[in-house]
């Protein structure tokens, strides 16, 4: 906490056993860990500069846990660790230390590693959070979609989101009208565009016709409560439809209401703000745009005998 709040390394001090150079004996000293390195006091627990003797600088040293310190090195306990200089490869240059218990050893090793790598660890922790606040993550597919206008002599990128949405809806309406016109031209002379438009959805795999709310709930549950959707006739409000959608393992129902636009019957999920000539266009739109829904439409719900 001291390091995170002030970016300064806390001073760690306490007693440790140290192996004397070129000897098998161990001696207990009072050690002090500071930003400048590791020291031990040659006079009790005094931390005066004249009593502190330098042991290691962690800018060019690493700390390691020692296994079987008692058996291999004659340490007073098995909680050994060592400081090794990166410039020397000889075992004689190892600074062998030993703590009285595991928590004390963990404290010293963690403090030494924090002294050496603490700032880098702190920056690694902070940077992703700063990036998330600066620029929210978007999926690759969303980043690759660019709205274009080809109506003029030269094409242009539509940067205004409202204009892009308006163009997308208008283009969908135009395409659906042409599709309905082609279908009506192959049918009987009395078949109107609206009547053809009103039956296009019947053959779609996501349309489940006369399915009640409870049956839709049960059908989606049988799919495993994954992100699926289906469209059905509304049981409570004739001539309307319902979009049943599962998201985050919760099933929600959205009513699709008819909207009259200059004598033309359209459909809308958001009180007429976004309008569609038929249910196919509505589904295709919300497969690409979340709109008022909690998520985009992903997988249609397969028909299962209830």
TrEMBL record:
PROSITE patterns in alphabetical order: PH_DOMAIN, SH2
CDD domains, A to Z: PH_APBB1IP
GO BP field: insulin receptor signaling pathway; negative regulation of insulin receptor signaling pathway
Positions of the SH2 domain: 206-301
Signal peptide region: none
Any matching Pfam family: PH
ATP-binding found in the keyword field: no
Residue stretches making up the PH domain: 9-117
InterPro entries: BPS-dom (IPR015042), GRB/APBB1IP (IPR039664), PH-like_dom_sf (IPR011993), PH_APBB1IP (IPR039665), PH_domain (IPR001849), SH2 (IPR000980), SH2_dom_sf (IPR036860)
Keyword set, alphabetical order: Phosphoprotein, SH2 domain
GO cellular component, one term: cytoplasm
Name of this protein: Growth factor receptor bound protein 14
Species, as recorded: Seriola lalandi dorsalis
